[in-house]
Amino acid sequence: MIHPEDYFDVSDWEFGDLFEEAELVWEILPRIKAYLQDRIRPNLGVLSGQGPFLTRTSVIYQGDLIQDDLRLVPGDATKGNFKVFHRDRELPGAVVLYGGVTLAGEDISLGEGTVVESGAFLQGPTIIGRQTEVRQGAYIRGSCLIGDHCVVGHVTEIKNSVMLNGAKAGHFAYIGDSILGSHCNLGAGTKLANLKIVRSAVTVALDKKIYETGLRKFGVILGDRTETGCNSVTSPGTLLGPRSIVGANVTVKAGVYPPRSVVR
Length: 264
Known about the structure:
Blueprint: H1 32-39, E1 58-61, E2 64-66, E3 70-73, E4 83-86, E5 89-90, E6 95-97, E7 102-104, E8 108-110, E9 115-116, E10 121-123, E11 126-128, E12 133-134, E13 139-140, E14 144-146, E15 151-154, E16 157-159, E17 161-163, E18 168-171, E19 174-176, E20 179-180, E21 185-186, E22 191-192, E23 202-206, E24 209-215, E25 220-222, E26 227-228, E27 233-234, E28 238-240, E29 245-246, E30 251-252, E31 255-257, E32 262-263
Parallel strand pairs: 6-9, 7-10, 8-11, 9-12, 10-13, 11-14, 12-15, 13-16, 14-17, 15-18, 16-19, 17-20, 18-21, 19-22, 20-25, 21-26, 22-27, 25-28, 26-29, 27-30, 28-31, 29-32
Antiparallel strand pairs: 1-2, 1-6, 3-4, 4-5, 23-24
């Protein structure tokens, strides 16, 4: 339970090659930034000159910027239910950035159908996939790879992390130096701690062996379809196998947990 394939199925994910050269799953974390810098194709150039702080709601459709004569019909973007109309013509797959969004840097890419709400702060390098919601007050601090149909929720902070397709952190979460598998869900207030109080690198213990990660900051590895309860906290260096469940208000001790673990 220390290899990427123990936690994630990335066989048909377009960014699955990030995982290929990692023998130990935590080796992915220090590679995220360089990987993004190599793979990113920034697509917000039409907003050049608008300033880092967007004062107007902006829609990007087929490479064009539209700011006038818009009608937005809010809905769940992850399910394709957010509708955009321009002069009564529907614009399927349009990217929406509400007024009040801050874009720190140009190395940001947003997929079709993604919606970024007012008050969100996005810093590059960051890739966000298709039909993802970045909700009001979200703080994306850079070196973030966020898949399709994801949610970066209200007042959720994320840095140097990966969210595979369908992963959701809907409310008041902290995601630092972590990887969330596909269709993971973080209950409101979940904190994925990434820094030990003691000033030393994070280690991982398994089968009476101690693995030296060499990482001062290492949050959590959440296998596919793992869920956490509200106000739960994972300690630095926690690895939870696929389909695990963490109860509400629980602090998870660092360590390796097998698939379908229930932590109460």
